[in-house]
Amino acid sequence: MEETRALSDLELAVARAFQLRGKSRLNRTEFTFALAYELKWFTPEESKEVLEAALKQGVLKETGDRLVPAFNVKGVVVPPDFKPGKDILEEKSLFDRTLDLLVSAGIDRVAALELIGQKQKEYGGLVTPEAAALIIAREKKLNVEPYIDEAYKEIIQEKK
Predict the structure, then answer these.
(1) For the chain (length 160 residues), average pLDDT per consecutive 10?
(2) Which residues on neighbouring strands pair with residue 160, listed in sequence order?
(3) Taking the domains of the chain in order of start, what are their residue ranges?
């Protein structure tokens, strides 16, 4: 089943950089050059921060010395007047990103928070809010893969 949801500004920025270059794989220099010099959206340093944020949030994957989008950029329509805000450089918590995932799938933010609370109760309080959000997202057939490793690490750290 294909995932249909609104894309984040970070995903739109990544898609545009790859579309501009016409490639399915870019090295780090090509990616940051596209954002800083061709699109003129960020400074070179900010472009590196966007790259790191995209890797951390699972929007990009690094295979050897190549960056690969974690989604199909060919089918993405980036509005002609699109320009990402500097807020994509701000690091969001795992909880905020999982909540954003649910909201991007069309679930009202308040309703998503209520669902997360209900899911935690369903599991007797044994799951974190992040884990509950990921369970809900998975039930809704959303792609949770970019969040799994980080959620696991957070759970392990909480046990210590």
Answers:
(1) 62 95 96 97 95 88 94 91 87 85 89 96 93 94 84 76
(2) none
(3) 9-89, 94-159
